[in-house]
Design a protein that fits this description.
It is a single chain. The protein is an alpha+beta fold and 293 residues long. Helix content is 29%, strand content 31%. It contains nine helices and 16 strands. Strand 4 and strand 5 (53-54) form a beta hairpin. It is globular, with a radius of gyration of 20 Å.
Length: 293
Amino acid sequence: MLKGYLVEKYNNMSGAYTCNRLVEEAKALGMDLRIIGIHDTYVVDGTVYNAGVPLEKRDFLINRYKWGKVPGELSELVTRTYNPYAAFAKYVNKFDQVKSIRSEEFRVPRYILGTGLLPYETIIETIGLPFVAKGLENSMGAEISLIQTPDDYKKLSVEYDMSKEWLFEEYISTSYGRDLRFYSIRGNAVAAMVRKSQGDFRANVALGASVESHAITPKLQKIAADIYAQTKLDFLGIDLLFGKSPEEASDIEDELYFCEINVMPGIEGIEEASGQNIAGHILRTIKEDFEIE
């Protein structure tokens, strides 16, 4: 029996859809997938303990936690790591994403990296107004603001530490309240959806956006392959913005902009929208790796 660890926040993730689905599909495939919570884990003299008990060596690990050194220590206990620690730690950062991820199939918005004390005029001269401020390692739409006035900008240094770095990006107004999310498994696009929000420029499902299925196209397949070649991340969500409004575009994918990749994406929305068994795809990919050996 193949045995693996799923690295998450806590040992008890009973209310988390993605964790439950992965464990469920692992069991269906005759695999033992154990959730290891970082906050329930510690390292002493090279030994990794979880809930006070030393952890055994296992076959594989799926990393879904983005901070600290403990995930790296856990990866030493397994033969294969999915979303390897070094790549995961790098590409969880949104600046590293826009700095290095490229494809002929999308544009990258203009951007500037700096703290909230960077002169407002400098940002406007570089990327225009309005612009978007993104925390470098946020998720689920948190720490993302649309800056339209000097007062909006001042709030960043009031609500957050002045030394906090931000990714300031060109605002793609034609994508207001909507984006395209697709799921990539080792460079293969397996499911896609369009997310739409009624009253927010962000289109995160966690913030209440609706979802609808979108076909997998050659363009999306090329983007998935390009990003996998550059990042080597096995399982990830890829978010794209629309460069043309619905009225302007002859095709919804006419002009796409890179938004971000999500190195620990939830799968509830995309399973709902696409009808695809994403959790099953993930676990079958892992099982096939070991069968090939």
